[in-house]
Amino acid sequence: RRGHRRARQALAAALAGDLDDALRLADRLLATAAPPDRSEAAVVAATALAHRGHVGRSVELFRWSGTASAAAFAIVGGLATGDLAATTESPAGDPAGEPPTLHASAARLMANGVRESVTGPPTAALSALVQAAALLEPDGRAALLPDSPAALAALTAVHCGELEIAERVLHRALGAGVGGPLMARRHRLLQAWILMVRGEIHAAGERLATVTLDGRQLESRDQLFAAAIRMGIGRRNSDLGALKRGWGQALEAVVRHPVDLFTLLPLGELAIAGARLGDLARLEPYLQQGRALLDRLGNPPLWCVPLHWSGLHAAILTGEPTVADEHVAALLAAAGHSRYAAVVAAAGESWVEVLRGVVDPIRVEATARGLHDTGLCWDGARLAGQAAIRTADRRAMTTLLECARALQGRPSGGPGAQTPTTGASTARVAGPTQHGLSDREYEVAELVLAGLTYREIGDRLFISAKTVEHHVARMRNRLNCANRTELLALLRTLVADRASDTAGQPWPQRASR
């Protein structure tokens, strides 16, 4: 039958990632084909629309198509748009008696996993989604998916601080080709996200570069993640030029893809970048949509916590202590939900204390190491570094700098090296201002990180190249760095917040609770 052949063509186009052809063929079939082919065309169209951000229309088509798998995908889409009623819908069998294939079983588990992420414990959500991902591995290339259970399992794992689980499930999905080229890009983007969060910035950039090797333009959801990764890499490299260059594309990506539950993570990263650039106001309407979506779902902690974590850092950069306190209060309220929630709640509280000039080195180090252990390696190093530059205690400064260096993945010294708390180690950092480096050294550090040569830095600051070299050597000695690579990595931590008006100044003391 011609209708059946065209339905197969639409399916093949969608699996290959050619959503224009898939939508064109599917739309014609919906208008003219026999009922069985129209049902298949509805699934193709619904899948394509989900990738392009039209989740509401996608849900309608999935429900209309009448299969059990489609009913399960409708639940996932409904929850993604904040439809709490979707938590009570059942993805169980359809009137036609669809057989319990691997695809249908995986779809049901996928719906249950997303539902548990909203209403239940994170362990139940993660378990269901990982199981769904495993079911699709034997014949995953033929599975047409609006989103893959591996991708949702990875997102859930990232929200739980279980990055190793996220990495493994994505690796297996890519190896099995689950979802074909259409889903391969999403899986690689999530791999790049995890590398970025871990602080493996170069590797994250390399993984991001593989996403567009096939020459196809990314769909709107993938564009949003890619833009957020680029901005996240630029922020972690303290590369203000890269942030400025990428901001326009990032805003366009936000506009193109409506806010949903599964894009809150990149939206949060872009909020920090917007705050760093002094342009957060342009993202505020979308952040409000995200908060409203979470409100409709009853503010599930698994999805709320990362948004509050990014909101805290945006508030730090914009110099809004009251807003930061509100995010910390929300994190503390959710602390009992998971180990990850408890860690970031403690870190948030410690961070605002540091900004107010209260540095407890033991607590800060424990909190920073907690962030590192949940996969937030760069954040852990940055917290320790920020505390180091805000304490007047030389010994505490040395201890925290050593902690920051260790959390960045570099050894703190050889077998014969002195411990951070010895008098000799403290002497090595003698001479800095209260913030660890002088104002001139901060200027030099920022230009070094921007990639300028000593001569170019000298021209900018009206000093000789030899004087610049002297400043760099003194910073390396003061910060106890073994080589230039280690110095550059630590300087990124120390100057990360210098663009904020309040970065170097204690915040007003918080009112007692």
UniProtKB/TrEMBL annotation:
Keywords attached to this entry: DNA-binding, Transcription, Transcription regulation
Pfam family membership, one: GerE
Record keyword DNA-binding present: yes
GO molecular function: DNA binding
Biological-process GO terms, alphabetical: regulation of DNA-templated transcription
Domain of life: Bacteria
Chain intervals for the UniProt region annotation (Disordered): 408-435
Compositionally biased intervals (Low complexity): 417-427
InterPro entries found in the cross-reference section: Sig_transdc_resp-reg_C-effctor, Tscrpt_reg_LuxR_C, WH-like_DNA-bd_sf
Domain HTH luxR-type: 430-495
Protein name: Helix-turn-helix transcriptional regulator
Lineage start: Bacteria, Bacillati, Actinomycetota, Actinomycetes, Micromonosporales
